[in-house]
Amino acid sequence: MQNSTHPGFWTLTFLVVANMIGAGVFTTSGFTLQSLGSSSLVVWAWCIAGVIALAGAYSYGQLIKAIPESGGEYLFLSRAAHPMLGFIAGWVSLIAGFSGAIAFAATTLEEYAMPDDRRPDWLPNGAIAILSVVLAGVFHGFRPRAGAILQNTIVVLKLVLLIAILAFAATNFPIDAATAVGSTLTQPTGWALFAAFASSLVWISLSYSGFNAAVYLAGEVDNAKRVVPRSMMIATGAVVILYLLLNSVFVFANSPESIVGRPDIAAITARSIGGHLFETFVRWTIVACLVTSVFSMMMAAPRVYAKMADDGFLPDRLRFDHQQIESPRAATLLQVALAVILVLATTLQGLLSYLGLTLSLCAACSIACLFLPSLRNGRQWHPTDLIPAFYLFGTLVSAVTLAAFNPWQLLGTVITFSAGAIAYRVISKSS
Fold first, then answer.
1. Given pLDDT bands bounded at 50, 70 and 90, which one contains residue 151?
2. Number of helices (H) and strands (E), helices first, in the chain?
3. Which residues are registered as beta bridge partners of 38?
């Protein structure tokens, strides 16, 4: 494969942006407002989660400097900790990290592109979502260079459109919006508020979870130790700023009662600011965001499965043959099939807590590798070690608090991790 086909800084930066700006930012704040009961607390939750995401992006950059190869969490945990932990991380990517996230983005795409009151009778539920998954698989599995160019183009377009939406909102903000700042719904207090805030951070973490997307292509990048960390930090910083601005508009441009518990908070906000015409414009901007989210995850996911196949944990057919093709086609087809199954079998709200909790814990396990002797190589403690420690602390406190106050939300995550451990034992004994 020629160097011209290697992903560069801008492709990686756009990949991270595309992964991050997906379904979560356009659906989460209504549920967060219902949990916290305060518009101001919602914005604070997005701010704190953004700081945690920046710490995560920095930490993954340090992992790539130690292991500059493709494979993501599977690679880091396999090499630095134990092959079983790596396999479980790869299993999580297979079930939740990519398949579930692709299904979540594709289903939200359909909700915004074709809401129920506008859907023709002949169009079945899930058709648009499945079409977006299949198209992403075709481009990245069989036309990877065209897929990267198309993805980069749409990412630029969607950033321009989102900035235009913010500019319109700034000049057409409702005069009485300031009353929403001081108004609250029923707001929890004490430990109940702490638990609600922790739950909100878990939900919001799903919106920030793509900050590490560039690591999945590290083995195909020239000078990965420098390019990959830079792309993740710059992209994550830009998205954090964008998220804070967008969610400030979402929660302060409406009365809290009109958006609490609503998944289509962006469309409601657009209608209140600019009427039905602006709502239509916002809906199609969100569709563009979600198209790139589906495409970017379809670009990154098969690299994990190909790495697992290289190590003998998945069939050889899923391996990445660099000499013949530019992408792991069989692994891409597998990803398409899994995502389509989840589109048909799941709901948006059901995926939110499960994906946020499962993916944040998997990322925390990977970042914990930075403190293992196998990666430190005798290096002494340095103040920058506080950054990954902060990510671990924030993620684990949120997860433990959520599990303590609502243990049933932990069930899906426990089942996923346990199934991965069992699968590893079965495969190890048979090999």
1. low
2. 18, 0
3. 184
SS3 38: strand
Look at 148 and 270; give whichever has higher pLDDT. Answer: 270
Q: Rounded to whole angstroms, how far apart are CA atoms 400 and 356?
A: 13
pLDDT, tens digit (0-9, with 9 covering 90-100), for 283-332:
888 887 788 778 877 877 787 778 778 878 788 877 766 544 556 778 88
Radius of gyration of the chain (CA): 21
Tell me what pLDDT residue 1 has.
38
Going by C-alpha positions, the residue among 107, 172, 160, 158 that lies closest to residue 285 is: 158
- Identify any residues that bridge with 184 across adjacent strands, giving them in sequence order: 38
What torsion do the CA atoms of 221, 225, 229, 230 make, to the nearest 10 degrees?
-80
pLDDT tens-digit readout, 269-295? 888 888 888 888 888 888 877 887 788
Q: Which amino acid is at 406?
A: N
Total count of domains within the chain = 1
CB 133 within 8 A of CB 102: yes
What do you get for the CA distance between the two ends of the chain, in Å?
A: 32
Q: Residue for token digits 């697992």?
A: 308
Q: What is the secondary structure of 154-213 as a DSSP string?
A: HHHHHHHHHHHHHHHHHHS--GGGHHHHH-B-S---HHHHHHHHHHHHHHHHHHHGGGGG
- CATH code: domain of residue 14: 1.20.1740.10
* Nearest C-alpha neighbor of 63 from the set 390, 357, 394, 376: 376
Structure-token match 């670009």, residue found: 299
Give the other-Cβ count within 10 Å of 393's Cβ.
14
CA–CA distance, 318 with 84 (Å, rounded to integer): 20
Euclidean distance between CA atoms 420 and 413, whole angstroms: 11
**What's the pLDDT score for residue 276?**
86
Domain range for 224 = 3-430
β-partners of residue 347 are none
